[in-house]
Design goal:
- The chain is mainly β.
- It has two domains: 208 residues, Beta Barrel (Porin), CATH 2.40.160; 408 residues, Porin (Beta Barrel), CATH 2.40.160.
- Helices cover 4% and strands 52% of the residues.
- The chain has a 16-stranded antiparallel barrel with strand order 14-15-16-17-20-21-22-23-24-25-26-27-28-29-30-31. Strands 1-3-4-6-7-8-9-13 form an eight-stranded antiparallel barrel.
- A hairpin with a 2-residue loop joins strand 15 and strand 16.
- The chain is globular, with a radius of gyration of 27 Å.
Length: 692
């Protein structure tokens, strides 16, 4: 089963369930010009999660999503063969789970609620079992995985005042894969559909508008299957039986379709015009987005290719994300935000070959099937300092209300560093604006992140009417481009400081931001790698040069409105370039310039046209390293005829509806990976973005 068809089906379900938003797609709700800490990577449109009519009747259809954690185990059996029976160790499963569901409830007059639900989920498991025969060293690694999991369940609940406890059970089916890695042999892989059952219990509760929350425990037994002949422990085994089992704890959201019915006394319909409602709640914010990007390029000039080269024959790839933005007001000034996310797809060449990578939705991990991830979980505390007040509109990761213009804000948790730093009204969101990394990003700004772009840290911000100062500390990866963070706190890490000034030029608003950063951790050196003996089989091997080093940098970031419909922006970035990049891309100097125009002139004010260019380079140490055959995070052609990489990008974003935007994007990149021997590259992309 192709993962793209799975995505297309559920994308349609999600889009059909979106309530009408309160803002135009592509125009992010912002508190005021003084808003300095909005999440730049969140989607730009907004719905509203205001008053909740807390109905006592749960009758009706609903659509929603769920996210949680699963823990389980599996048993394995292999038919005997010469060498005796096998021993399997490490047979546990664990990982994030996420997906979508669709259901219907009917509430009886006695408050019993009967329902049915179908769901489709995905699991980010990554466990490995060791296979060995008695008296032998382990010779195989057994990697099980779950590509997708579907359920059809019945539900029985009892409606309390605002709460619905329930039990559930039914059939489960899943696509499971077995990968066996035998030493010295090509990996073997097989996939089977398993059929089994599931059961559990949970509770639902009203949140805001038609939204209800959910917490649920489930036990899932997809059933066992026998796989075909595989080579294990050096012996051919005619059959392998695989039997996985999961315990899951999930939280979820349901959007109830249509008007919510309300019962009167004794479970009877109320008199006309009489609706029994719970008190209004404005302490929640609920939003979501989904973005699908297809991108490709025709064959390019490619006299040779290295391990990190863009393929010369051309390629087309797609990426897809779906994110929920959930926030809750905890106390005065205290807010908690949670962003579960599904990611699927591949960047071109598995996200290598270009320093200015052309798809901001493509990260450094590739997923054939949707991969659940807790992208953000953070606490924000705002301390008002008195004086002038401003209104905050409801939006993604932003609760509606009022706050002091003069304030101190502290944010702690997991998020993306560009959420709070490097903002720009015209180039900061690859889901609605420019796609290229070094146009929406900071070029040489090597901010801390895992392979999908998120980090753990703390940020403090002092905001005033005409300026803001923010500083943050984030965990660095243990080494370059890995998902494990360095826990030598605070000795190692990323420190980032940014000063933002706000002004008016000819009555039009503008901002200037100056950002300084420093990485201190286990970092390799280009020069030390080149100095290794050339007889090394992995020469030049930068991994052998890693020790505690410090790598700093600077970004100057400007935006200026020219008219109400036209704005321009520019970024200048620099770092010394002596040491390897830890998390972003292989760039040491860059300068970008661009403009964005709305379609008001031709009668489509919600449409946008953007054009931008960026020129970037690498240091002398890096040039020698890459010319000697070295590889970085994204580039490495095996040799190098150095020229600066140059990028031009243009897009037209068509506003199809208040919650849907279709974008056509073109990029031209000369000297890909700073190599004049290869390219140029023309890249074409189509992006569909849905938000509420």
């Amino acid at each position: 089963m192709d993962g793209r068809w799975v995505i297309a089906a559920w994308l349609g379900v999600l889009a059909s369930a979106c309530p009408a938003p309160a803002a135009q797609a592509g125009g992010a709700p912002r508190a005021a010009e003084t808003e300095a800490a909005d999440l730049a990577s969140a989607p730009s449109g907004a719905g509203t999660a205001g008053d909740m009519t807390g109905a006592s009747d749960w009758t009706g259809a609903y659509v929603g999503g769920q996210f949680g954690f699963g823990l389980g185990d599996f048993s394995i059996g292999a038919n005997p063969a010469p060498g005796g029976p096998l021993a399997f160790t490490g047979t546990t499963l664990k990982g994030w789970l996420g997906g979508f569901h669709l259901g219907y409830n009917y509430q009886l007059p006695n408050r019993v609620v009967l329902g049915g639900e179908t769901g489709l989920g995905f699991i980010s498991d990554g466990r490995t079992a060791t296979v060995s025969a008695p008296g032998q060293q382990a010779t195989s690694r057994f990697n099980p995985g779950v590509e997708w999991l579907g359920t059809v369940r019945g539900r029985v609940g009892y409606a309390l005042d605002g709460w619905l406890p329930y039990v559930t059970g039914g059939a489960a089916a899943g696509s499971n894969r077995l990968n066996v890695d035998n030493a010295g042999q090509p990996p073997a892989a097989q996939t089977r559909i398993h059929w089994g059952w599931t059961g559990g219990a949970g509770v639902e509760f009203p949140m805001a508008d038609n939204w209800a929350g959910r917490a649920e425990y489930s036990y899932i037994d997809p059933g066992s299957r026998t796989y075909g002949s595989m080579s294990l422990d050096g012996q051919a085994r005619p059959g392998v039986r695989y039997d996985p089992r999961f315990h899951t704890l999930m939280v979820g959201l349901n959007y109830r379709l249509g008007e919510i019915p309300v019962r009167g006394a004794a479970g009877q319909p109320p008199p006309s015009g009489d609706r029994s409602e719970t008190p209004a709640s404005k302490d929640w914010t609920i939003h979501g987005q989904t973005t699908l990007v297809w991108q490709g390029y025709p064959p390019i000039r490619s006299p040779y290719q290295g391990p990190n080269s863009l393929p010369g024959g051309g390629e087309g790839r797609e990426t897809w994300t779906a994110t929920a933005f959930i926030g809750r007001r905890l106390w005065e000034g205290g807010e908690l935000y949670f962003n579960p996310e599904l990611q699927q797809g591949f960047g071109l060449a598995d996200t290598i070959g270009l320093a200015a990578f052309p798809n901001g939705e493509a990260q450094k991990s590739a997923f054939l099937y949707p991969h659940p991830n807790m992208s953000r979980l953070f606490l924000r505390q705002t301390f008002g300092l008195g004086g002038e007040r401003e209104t905050v509109e409801d939006g993604p990761n932003q609760l509606a209300g009022e706050r002091d213009v003069s304030r101190m804000t502290v944010t702690v948790g997991k998020l993306a560093v560009p959420d709070l730093f490097l903002g720009n009204a015209y180039a900061s969101d690859a889901r609605t604006q420019f796609l290229n990394w070094n146009i929406w990003g900071g070029g040489s700004f090597d901010y801390a992140a895992d392979k999908v772009g998120y980090a753990i840290g703390a940020i403090a911000e002092l905001n005033q009417k005409y300026w803001a100062l923010r500083a943050g500390y984030f965990l660095l990866p243990k080494v370059s481009n890995v998902n494990q963070f360095d826990l030598h706190i605070p000795a190692h890490g990323n420190w980032t400081v940014e000063l933002e000034t706000r002004y008016s030029l000819f009555s039009q608003p503008g901002k200037l931001r100056v950002l300084g950063w420093m990485n201190h951790g286990n970092i390799g050196s280009y020069a030390d790698a080149v100095a290794e003996p050339t007889a090394f089989p992995t020469y030049p091997d930068i991994t052998l040069t890693r020790r505690v080093r410090t790598n700093p940098g600077l970004v100057v970031n400007a935006e200026q409105a020219i008219t109400d419909d036209l704005g321009v922006f520019s970024r200048l970035s620099w770092s010394p370039g002596h040491d390897e990049i830890m998390a972003f891309t292989d760039t040491h100097q860059s300068i970008s310039l661009g403009a964005v125009l709305t379609g008001r002139v031709w009668g489509r004010p919600a449409d946008k046209v953007g054009v931008a260019g960026v020129v970037e380079g690498i240091s002398r140490d890096a040039r020698i390293y890459f010319a000697s055959g070295g590889t970085g995070i994204l580039i490495g052609d095996g040799r190098l005829t150095y020229r600066r990489e140059k990028v031009f990008e243009a897009y037209y974003a068509v506003n199809l509806a208040r919650w849907t935007t279709l974008t056509f994007d073109y990029q031209f990149i000369a000297n890909p990976a700073y190599n004049a021997d290869r390219g140029a590259v023309s890249l074409f992309a189509t992006r569909v973005h849905v938000e509420f």
